[in-house]
Amino acid sequence: MRSERRCLLVCLLLLLTGMRDPFRPPDDRCGSAELTRWRYRGFVAEVGLMYDGKQRWYRVRQGEALAGWRVVSLDKNALVVEIGKGCEPAQWRWQREGEGNEKSRDNHSAADRLRDEPGSRTKTGHAGGG
């Protein structure tokens, strides 16, 4: 009877103290797991355009809040947020996306594109060419 009471008391203490599920990942109060999902897509007249990966777009300005973080700096090349006290890393920086792809796409002429397409004729003397 005494052992049953002790067992009941231990179980009640565990329930009352809010023992955490050992299989659940720890709470991410800083939101650092979400940082890699966000993308900095553009900058127009002191406003940054962010994409969260869930098909939602956000307009942010310097000093405003973004998903619990504070925007520290913002320009046409990068956006920096302060995550919070006690969080590692303390700040996160996104580089603006899209610019590199646009430049590499525009550097090729139409003749280069035709020559690189599969099934196009190649000059004699090239490997696989005739």
Provide the CATH top-level class of the domain at 30-97.
Answer: Mainly Beta
Number of strands: 7
CATH architectural group of the domain at 30-97: Roll
Note the run of SSEs as H and E. HEEEEEEEHH
Rounded to an integer in angstroms, the radius of gyration calculated over CA atoms is: 27 Å
> What gross morphology would you assign?
elongated
Helix amount, in percent? 10-25%
Helix tally equals: 3
Alpha-carbon distance between the two ends: 94 Å
Low-confidence stretches: 101-107
Strand content: 25-35%
**Would you tell me the overall average pLDDT?**
76
Provide the CATH topology of the domain at 30-97: SH3 type barrels
Note down, in words, how this protein is organized:
This protein has 130 residues and is α+β, with helices and mostly antiparallel strands. 23% of the residues lie in helices and 25% in strands. The chain has three helices and seven strands; from the N terminus they run H-E-E-E-E-E-E-E-H-H. The chain has helices spanning 2-16, 99-106, 110-116; strands at residues 39-44, 47-51, 57-60, 65-66, 69-74, 78-82, 91-95. The strands form two sheets. The protein has a four-stranded antiparallel beta sheet, with no helix packed on it. A three-stranded antiparallel beta sheet has the order 1-2-3, with no helix packed on it. The radius of gyration is 27 Å and the shape is elongated. The protein starts with a helix and ends in a 14-residue tail after the last helix. InterPro entries: HofP. This is HofP DNA utilization family protein. Residues 94-120 have a biased composition (Basic and acidic residues).
